[in-house]
């Protein structure tokens, strides 16, 4: 709606300049009939742009860690719902975000959004998980390598960046799609309504399932001794996740 109003105002501005009329009269007439009542409750923060996230955490002594792939497996238990924005980039799979990905998102979004009408907020933490690496040409052994860089683990269903303000999805969707395509895991641009619709469809699919043999029933009944080859991860998520990959169509 706002984009259509801006286009109409721009066209009338050109007509006014061509015929030498006053612009205020036409703009006031248009704004009377604009249905912008849904934007009255929107409050822009003092700093609307994405803040800079540190490349290295501020630690007294850096400690090495194991891989711990469980950090990117399964569904996200935190930051999986909206807080103050209307649109967001949602991860549809697990993966690690490097500092370069975070800087790419920050620079792209801060350059493309209008700070007078739009704000953006991080829903992820700065890189904190250490990744070690050995130099080229080194022989095997010798212990664990030195810390090379830090990453941020992300699980499926987590919100990466949240945007809001006096703006519609059509005005910033192309920017968010451009950012989502460059992430190291599948991501999707969603609004509050589309996220709720996705959860509603998943719940409806589980309630109206006509197949009597679901993964949960087969695993709990231990049919043909299947519990021997299933991990606690499979029993907890009922086969909807395989590592960092998510199967949205599986009940």
Automatic annotation (TrEMBL):
It comes from the Eukaryota. It holds the Pfam family Ribosomal_L16. One of its GO terms (molecular function) is rRNA binding. It is found in: Mitochondrion. Keywords: Mitochondrion, Ribonucleoprotein, Ribosomal protein, Transit peptide. One of its GO terms (biological process) is mitochondrial translation. The keyword Magnesium does not apply. GO terms for cellular component: mitochondrial inner membrane; mitochondrial large ribosomal subunit. InterPro entries: Ribosomal_uL16 (IPR047873), Ribosomal_uL16_bact-type (IPR000114), Ribosomal_uL16_dom (IPR016180), Ribosomal_uL16_sf (IPR036920). Belongs to the universal ribosomal protein uL16 family. This is Large ribosomal subunit protein uL16m. It comes from Poecilia latipinna.
